Amino acid sequence: MVAGSVPARAPGWANLGMDIVSAQRVRQMVADHGESFLLRMLTQQELADCRTDEGLNLLTVCGRIAAKEAAFKTLRVADRILPWLDIEVHRADGGWPLIELRGRAAQLAQDAGIEGITVSISHDVDYAVAVGAPVLSTGN
Amino acid sequence: MSAELQQVKNWILKRHPERQDIAGDLDLIENRLIDSLSFVEFVFLLEQTSGRTIDMESLEVDHLRTLNIIEARFFGVTVH
Question: What is the pLDDT of residues B39-49, one digit of tens each?
Fold first, then answer.
């Protein structure tokens, strides 16, 4: 059976999402528009979480952006704009990321039979990547 | 083509120097001229050039799919 032919909500199947973000592109974005431009993609809390005593950690920003993209991709919705601020990435006590869905993102997830999304983020040198996996609602 | 749309077109061309031109009916999304990351900047550009705030809640990908659609929707020009 070809995985791509399986319906998104078929029993036992979960659609992964993955994304990669170039720090060079985000660096240019910040240079062009300022750090506040990032608030179009990150919440105030997320941006605060990306700061260290040396200032904004750009790779952490990229990781947050990649995580949101990866999470959104698990929803398998066509022609919809990523509701950036409705997908929030938190940092758990253990250091791993947690995804909170709100508003339109929560509605899209509910429509897709998804009750949550788990993500993993990694970064090195000038790229951040993230992979997301949905937690299917009971009965899916 | 309006001056505002020319600005938009120039913005895309600057990011895709391999292209000489962009047809008005070319699908910007399918042809990967705008990806998800640049989409955020693209909306910001449209806000600057049109002078109005774009409601992300009601914005759909189809509203930004071609230059013709963008011109009609954001710069008040109907393309026939």
Answer: 999 999 999 99
